[in-house]
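User: For my dataset I need records formatted as: sequence, then structure tokens, nothing else. Please produce one.
Assistant:
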Amino acid sequence: MKVKAAIEVKQFDEIINIAAVVSDAVSLLGDDTSGQEIPESDFIDDDWLNRFHHYAGAASSESLRHMWARILAGECKSAGAFGASAMRFIFELDTQLALQCQDISKRVLNDTIYISKDDKEGKALMNALALQAAGLINGVGGDITNTFSTDGKGLHNLIFGDVALQIKSSVNRKFNLPIWLITGLG
């Protein structure tokens, strides 16, 4: 009898979590009073909803429920935006890896992370290797570069996050910057 009661409590918790996630997602989506019928091609896939229910049902904290609400809202806006592997990754994401993602995300420009020689050693290298092992980035330990050239004034500007980098050199000069690549999952 205790086992049955424990299962029922777990199912009740999942229902509460899903209800909170859906309510939050509705708030994020806002009030759509357009009255237009949604084409069937924009419907969320049933298999996707089953996976989502499994993952979001386990979201026991407000911050996790809000994260799953943002995923649901994104999927409602653009069906297919979040694949099964992305949801599984998010579900299994631990605090340490989340912090590593947050740290490196400040340096992302067009699915590319520009690196310095400091990134090739110590803690920065260990963090990058963890992100590569998780399937989020590629090229750690390699020699991948992006090639750029300066303009007619000898300048090239790169802006990523809240960082701006202006490279000044001779006019129309080509140069390479070392990079790591963001994967599809990343």
